[in-house]
Amino acid sequence: MKILLIGYGKMGQTIAALAAQQGHEIAGIVDRHATQLNITDFTPATVDVAIEFTHPDSALANITACLRQGIPVVCGSTGWLHHFDEAQALTQELGGSLFYASNYSVGVNLFFHFNEYMAAKMHQFGGYDVAVREIHHTHKIDQPSGTALTTAEGIIRHFPGKTSWRNAPAEATTELAVISERSGEVVGTHIVRYTSAVDTLELKHEAHSREGFALGALLAAKWLPGRVGVFGMKELLDL
């Protein structure tokens, strides 16, 4: 593939290194700190797909530019989902291709899958309360993490006792506590804990490096071109 990288932070650099190992070409890098290139400098004739990992404030503008250029875009930025409906509408209007995931790790997406199954089962048998905890490095801007939000939404869909989430200890039984911690260089840890008077059950995912996220993003980038619409990891992994 010929890949346009949008954002050249830690994730962008990891994706670039793995792409080279897999025989792909980085056709361009758009990054305000690293290059003077713009998304409008590229077209479907020069790149096959764009991979976007930037900042919550710039994600929508980057996605919009890719869609208007006719470039399929794989987005991994988090913290911008209040604009997701706009991105979805523009994708449909232009007949474009957008792939979004809050986390591209195959393991994390299996975690999401099992989280929803577990929520339904735990509610079915009763007697448990549930909370989410996420731990990331001190450089992470948004909180809770996009992965924690996806986890919380999955619980709320399948555990009827919880109707909303709160980024703090719950103040009502209907609230799902999502506790965020920022510590050192932690890549990303997410824990769902069910507690009752007699026992505790946990579902946990702990990332050891950013490579898992980068490999998933490249997998999505291979899969997306030629498809029209908005997609995510459930479609990619057939979950």
TrEMBL record:
Spell out the SUPFAM superfamilies in the cross-references.
Glyceraldehyde-3-phosphate dehydrogenase-like, C-terminal domain, NAD(P)-binding Rossmann-fold domains
One Pfam family name is: DapB_N
Matching entries from InterPro entries are given as:
DapB_C, DapB_N, DHDPR_bac, NAD(P)-bd_dom_sf
Residue ranges of every copy of the Dihydrodipicolinate reductase C-terminal domain listed in the record: 107-237
GO molecular function (one): 4-hydroxy-tetrahydrodipicolinate reductase
Q: Would I find NAD among this entry's keywords?
A: yes
Q: What is its EC number?
A: 1.17.1.8
Q: Name one GO biological process term.
A: lysine biosynthetic process via diaminopimelate
List the catalytic activities from the record. Answer: (S)-2,3,4,5-tetrahydrodipicolinate + NADP(+) + H2O = (2S,4S)-4-hydroxy-2,3,4,5-tetrahydrodipicolinate + NADPH + H(+); (S)-2,3,4,5-tetrahydrodipicolinate + NAD(+) + H2O = (2S,4S)-4-hydroxy-2,3,4,5-tetrahydrodipicolinate + NADH + H(+)
- According to UniProt, the name of this protein is 4-hydroxy-tetrahydrodipicolinate reductase
